[in-house]
Amino acid sequence: MPATSGRRRAPAHYHGKPRRQPAGGQRMTNGQRPGNGQSGGGQPSRRPDDTRSQLEQALAAAAALPQSTADFTELGLDPRLVSALAARGIRVPFAIQARALPDAMAGRDVLGRAETGSGKTLAFGLPMLSRLAGLPGRVREKAPRGLILVPTRELAQQVAAVLTPLGRSLGVSVTTVYGGVPIGRQISRIAGGVDIVVATPGRLIDLLERRACTLTDIGITVLDEADHMADLGFLPSVTRILDATPAGGQRLLFSATLDRGVDTLVRSYLADPALHAVTPEIAAGSAAEHSLLVLDDGDKVAVAAEMASRPARTLFFVRTKHGADRLARQLDKAGVPAAAIHGDRTQGQRQRALDSFSAGHPRVLVATDVAARGIHVDGVELVVHFDPPNDHKDYLHRSGRTARAGATGLVVTLALRDQVREIQRLHAAAGVESARHHVTAGHPVVREIATTGTPVPPPPPVREARPRPAGAPPRARSRPGHSSRSTDRRASRRRPAA
H helices of 174-225, where? Predict the structure, then answer.
């Protein structure tokens, strides 16, 4: 494991309580003795708001530290992983990776703050793979050694897609567990023994209740996008799962914010965590340009359709699932093919829509906030807030789908006149400056947006079936599950002898 001495660290650390006891044990907060409301030193215990403020200050200090220039080898990563990363064109660690890797590989609990698209999957995935590869013995049936909890099915698939090929280089296996698909296949994979499970909370609890999985061997637990899990109401399930893992295991929590109960998870489950953070790209002045287009309600769909006709990918965000379907239909009617994803779509429908959008056909995708964090598609140059987001954090999450990994992008918010003041406050809270324009369909600003962007390559040509020669016998029609060859054999047996 790499040495951790001599490296810069955040000037303040949250010294949380000792590791939480397993379910049924005595619960204490910050060294508080049961029943007296006093800390071990006789002073009143800190309020949650005070602790959150302390954590926020420490994370801000961590984000302000100089960027490390070390490469993966210098950070102490397993040489096999370094080679596997290089084979995929990954040679220089992102900021959150360079900051978090040494502590995570040394076995420390880690609290990381990083936005989606910052490279945090490898920040927790590489240490997990490296440490699990060094464990003796074989993994037991139904008993994984590593657990990654994520809020959505799409994110589970994406995390597994990143870690699975890297795990192969070390002999570490990865599987996914999420709802919306038959549970039997997931039970079979875990029953055969697997090193790492990437899971959504609800489906994992289903497996635990069926005794198809046990968490008694978990040595490393990751909570990815903990704030999103809080938004979706998953924290009770998350705490239930954490209580089922061994008290002495390593825990890594990554979240964009500490509110909505995330700070409670930190206080309850992380022991003296190392704090690592990177400044959000938007707040740091990323390559994304922000515009506020003020318009009348009757012009909204027409302006949206004109912008969506651009040759590059465009991502629209709306508040409701019905709004997503409605806008997709309206864009289709205006001659702009569009797909929609939201919580009511099946896993297959959502994945097909994402795959098609990633391929650029259609070039337009309409999504709800629930689906926002499951969208990780490169080359999205325009994000449109068709409906205003609920708050500045949702604005940042939506807008983070463009200008990723140093690319440029444009973020447009459509606002009715009575929404302008609210959206300006939201932009200020998000730390962005936006140019404001009053527009209608055909306005020069709208036309400029509609004609810019990197064109998506055309779809591959459809192979045309060659016409059959005149007088050729008709092809035999086979039933599902029966080949045409077997049909021909049966037909020859029925044919009378000459």
Answer: 183-191, 201-209
